[in-house]
Amino acid sequence: MWLAISIVLGKIKTRKMFMISAALIAVLLIVGIATTVATNDEMYKNGVQQKQIMDNITNDPNSMLIIPSQNMIMYFLDYSNHSDIYFINVDKVFGENMDRLHKLYDFNTFNGKDIDNLIANNTQKNIYVISWGEPVLNTSTEKLDTQAGIVFSKVKPTNTTSIPAEETYYEE
After folding, report:
1. Which of 85, 125, 167, 171 is surrounded by the fewest CB atoms within 10 Å?
2. Could you tell me which residues come within 8 angstroms of residue 67 by beta carbon, excluding any fewer than 6 positions away?
């Protein structure tokens, strides 16, 4: 883009057109820098808030974390050694073999169809679900927070059931 702009500026013959073009380019540059700074600031704030939520969850010795999305596994692997964590069972995550990840991190896997059974069989724990959007479960959840589309929910212990959800979590 900047190469094209410099070529166009080089072809401008009149001083007035050059000044107008230079002013527009300066505005474009300032807006671009401001957008980048604002985006970085927002991403930093989301990261700090997400870390605080995860620290609160993993500091609870009775917590259990369920992550039903294949795309989220890599984001939350670092917490697997600090909490009882369950990821959806898949062969590979971003090209990395799941067996190799099991050797490096301490986590469990579950079949996407069995998420409600997993919850029903662990009612004595504080169960948290981290998903893209609202989790689809046959149990009530309380939304704790949303960060960049990631929803942090806590399963309410009173309404658990072992009936499978109509919608299941599988990812290809």
Report:
1. 167
2. 73, 76, 85, 86, 87, 88, 129, 130, 131
Q: Under a CB-based contact definition with an 8 Å cutoff, are residues 69 and 169 in contact?
A: yes
Alpha helices in the chain (DSSP H): 2-11, 15-58, 73-76, 98-104, 115-120
pLDDT tens for each residue of 77-97 = 777 777 788 888 888 787 878
pTM: 0.62
Q: How many CB atoms lie within 10 A of CB 39?
A: 10
Owner of token pair 């474009």? 28
Those residues whose C-beta lies under 8 Å from the C-beta of residue 83, and which sit 6 or more positions away, are 57, 58, 60, 63, 64, 65
Q: For 111-120, what is the mean pLDDT?
A: 82
Cβ–Cβ under 8 Å, residues 158 and 131: no
